Amino acid sequence: MNNRHIHVLSAILVAVSLALFTYKAHVLGLPLQPKQETQVWNIEAAIKFEPGPAAVKATLRIPGLTPGYAILDESFVSRGFGLTTRSAPAGREAQWTLREAKGSQVLYYRALVYRDASRIAEDTTPAFPEQPLMDDASRAAMEALIAEVRRQSADVASFTTGLLRHINMAERDPYVGVFLRRTSTPVERAHLATVILAGAQIPARLAHGVLLRSETGQVRVESLLEVHDGVQWLYFNPQSLEQGLPRDFLIWWRGDDPIADIDGGTLLDVTLAAQQNLLDSMLIAERRAERLGSHSIDFSLFSLPIATQAVYGVLLMVPIGALVIMLLRNFIGIKTFGTFMPVLVALAFRETRLLWGIVLFAVIVSLGLLIRFYLERLRLLLVPRLTCVLTVVVLLMAGISVLSQKLDIQPGLSIALFPMVIISMTIERMSIVWEERGASEAIQEGIGSLIVAAISYVVMEIAWLKHLMFVFPELLLLVVAATLFAGRYTGYRLLELRRFRALLPQGG
Amino acid sequence: MLGRYRRLARAGVLGLNKRNGDYILRFNPRRLYPLVDDKLKTKHLALKAGIAVPELYGVMETQHEIRRLPEIVRDHAAFALKPAHGSAGDGIVVIAGRSGSRYRTVGGTLLDEDALSHHLSNAINGQFSLGGVPDVVIVEYMVRFSPLFERISFQGVPDIRVIVFRGFPIMAMVRLPTRDSHGKANLHQGAVGAGIDIATGVSLDGVVGTEVVTHHPDTTHVISGLQVPDWDVILDIAARCYELTGLGYIGVDIVLDRDLGPLVLELNARPGLAIQIANRQGLLRRLQLCEARADFSAAPQARVAFAKQWFQHPVGPMIEADEVAAAVA
Q: How far is B287 from chain A (nearest CA, A)?
C-alpha cells in the first residue's frame, strides 16, 4: 500500500473527527472539561394585584427575544387561573384569566436562563416608522432638532448618540425643552428618543431588561434604546450614551407598554428577582442541541442507560491504552508479554489503584511462578497444567482478599477484577521464557509489561481524557489516524539507538 | 539523541520497524510462512531441491507416538529432537548418547525416559510453537560439528546464519555457543556472533549482546581471521534457498558437519537484526545496493558472484536513496 493512500485516508479521518468535535464543542456547547458547570440564572417575576368584582385578565410580558441569553426552562405559578402565552409585538406575553377572584393575588413567572453567545436578535428588519402625530409647534421643534443632530452626525449610530446627548441636556436645549419637563424620568426621555427617531425615519424602540449580576435578590428594570440601522439592531444606554448590549443585560420585553397590566383589577406591584446558580454544562448543551434541532445528542452515548454509559466510559479508554502500548512498543521498543496484556492489567488497576495493583500483580505472578515451577516437576500435560495454574491463581486471589479483609486493608478486596486468565497465561509464558532464555530475560519482560501497564493505566485515568472520549467519541478517529501513521513508521525505535550503538560511525 | 538517530541512518542500520514494514511485509507473503515455520516442510522442500539437510529419522505427531522414540532411534546413539514449529531454538534437545536407560544430552545432563517424554509431550502440545498451536517433534541426525570451530565455541554446535535478500546472500555470521548460552547458538541467550566477510568467508570480530569481543569468552581464543571451509558451497546453498520458498527476506541457518559438509538446519522468515552488530555494519546499505544494482532474474551462481563482488567487507558508503528508487522503478 503506498503512503499517499494512507496520508489521504488519515487526513479524511482527522478532518471528520475534528469537524464533528468542533461542531459539538462550539455549536452545541458540549463541555470540554469534566464536571464543567455553567452559570445560570433563575429569574422570577411576581405580579401582585387586587382583583375587581368582575373577571380579571392579567398580562405579563415575558422574555422572548433575548440576544446573548437562552431560556433553559420556564414555569408559571398561578393557582386556578387560565393561562395562555402568545407572541406579541413587544416579544411574548403570558395572560392569566379568572372569572372571579377574591383577595389580593400573586402570580409568578419563573425561568432559567443561561448565556448563549449564539443567540442574536433574530427578528426581521422593521419597516420605516410612521411620522409621529404632534402639533405644528412641536413638529417644527422636532424638525429643527433632527436637522441639527443630522448635521453633526455621520450615520445612524452617531445620530442616535447625538440625539440622546441633546435629550439629556433638556434643560438647556432649546428644541428638546418643548417636549420635556425638568422632572421627566429616564424612561420618558428614552421614549422621546424613539419618537424623534421615528420622525427621522429610523426604526427605534425601547428594550427593558434586567442586569444579571452575581448578587442575588431583587433586580431593577433598566431600559435601553434599540435602533435599527438597516442591517442590525444597535443598543444604546440612554443615560450614559454607551453603545452596545452589556454582556449581563437580559432583555425582558420591548416597547412602551409596562411589564404587566391588569384588566378588571388594580395592579399593586411587580417585582423581578434573579438568582445566580451553577448547572451541569452537559444539561445545557442537551437543551441547546434540542433547540437547534440537532440529533447529535439523541444519538450520543448519553442516550444509553446509565449502566451502559458506565461500561462505555471504560471501553472508550481501551483504545487510548492500546495507543500508549503501541507507542511504547513500536517507538520506544519496550518488550511485553502478549501484545495487549498490559491494557487488561491496566484496566484491573482501575479497581486496585496503581501502587496496590503493582504489588498485587507482582505477588500473584511470583506465587504463580513458584507453583508453575513445582508443577513442572510433576510433568503435567500443557492444558491441564494451565488449568491448574489458573485455579491456583483464583485461589491465591481469594486468599489475598480474605487476608486483607482480616487485616483491614481495603484494596485487597478489589483484586477479584484482575484478569486471571491473562495472568495465568502470563505466568506460563514467563516460566517458559525463564527456562529457555534465563531468569533475567523473564524478569525483564515481566517488569517491562508491568511498566507498560502502569503507564497506560496512568494515561487511561486522566479524567479530562475520559471526559473527552465519552462526550466526543469521534476523537477515536484520531487514534485510528495515528495508528495508520504509526503503521508506516519505519524509523528506529528509541531503544535501538542503544542496541546498535556499536554500529555508530566513529567520530562524526 | 536525534544526532544518534541520524548517524545510525547514515550507517545504514536496519531497525525492527523498517525490517518489518519495508522488507518482511513487502517480500515475505504470509501464505509462504508455513514453508519455513514448519521445519518438516522445509526439510522436504530442501531434499527435493537437492540441498543437504540433516537426515530425518522419524516424526512424532501425537502424545501416543512418544513411545515410539526408542524404536525410531534404535540405530542411532546420537540424535536431535526438535519441535517442528519451534522458534529461536526453543525446545530443542540434542542427545549425544545413552548411559543405561537414560539419555545424555550434549550438555552432559542425564534425562530419564520420563523427563524426556514429558518434554516431548509439552512440545507436541505446543509449548514451544508460536501461538501455542499443537506441534510435531522431529527426530533427526545429530550434527557432528567440524573441529574447525572447536577452539572458539563452548559445547553445542556453531552455525552459520546467512541473510538472503531475493536470492542474494547479503550478510553472514557464525554463531558460537558459550557457557552462558548453554551450548545453544542463540545470540540473545549469550552466544557469540561473529560476522563473516561474504567475499572471502573469513570471520571478523564477535559480539556478545551488544558488546564487541575479540576473543571467545570461554575458550579465550581469537575469533577473527578464521576461514570458514566450503564457503562457496555455503553461499550457493543460501542463494538456492530463495527458490525453495519464494520468500524474499530470509535467514538461512547452516551447520558444517564434520563428515557431510554444510547442511541446512532451518530457514527463518523474520531473521533478527543482531547480525548487523556482529558484522559491525548496517544491513540497509547492502539491501539498497542490491536493489539498485542486482539483476533479480539471475541464476544462483550469478547471484553469489554478485554478492562476492559487492559485499566484500567493509562495504562502501550508502548509495543515494533516489538511485535505489530509480532502479526499483
A: 15
d(CA A467, CA A59): 46
Give the integer Cα–Cα distance in Å for A351 and A454.
Answer: 13
- B1-40+147-328 sits in which CATH class? alpha beta
**Extents of the domains making up chain B:** 1-40+147-328, 55-141
Min Cα distance B151 → chain A (Å) is 25
Is B224 an interface residue toward A (CB < 8 Å)? no
CA gap A165, A173 in Å, rounded: 10
Q: What's the CATH code, domain A36-127+203-299?
A: 2.60.40.2250
pLDDT of B58-93, one tens digit each?
Answer: 888 888 888 888 788 778 888 888 888 877 667 888
Edge-to-edge strand ranges of the sheet holding B137-141: B56-60, B137-141, B79-83, B93-99, B102-105, B110-111
Per CB-CB distance under 8 Å, the chain A contacts of B8 are: 492, 496-497, 500, 503-504
- Provide the ipTM: 0.75
A382-394, pLDDT tens digit by residue?
A: 778 888 888 888 8
Helix, strand, coil percentages, rounded to 5, for chain A: 50, 20, 30
Contacts of A493 in chain B (CB under 8 A): 15-17
Residue ranges of domains in chain A = 36-127+203-299, 303-494
A489/B17 CB distance under 8 A: yes
**For the domain with range B55-141, which CATH number is right: 1.10.10, 1.10.1660, 3.30.1490, 3.30.870?**
3.30.1490
* Cβ contact A383–B122 (<8 Å): no
pTM confidence score: 0.69
Whether chain A has a CB inside 8 Å of the CB on B128: the answer is yes
Nearest residue of A to residue B274, measured between CA atoms = A500
| Residues of chain B found within 8 Å of residue A505, distances taken between Cβ atoms | 7, 10-11
C-alpha cell at A326: 503501541
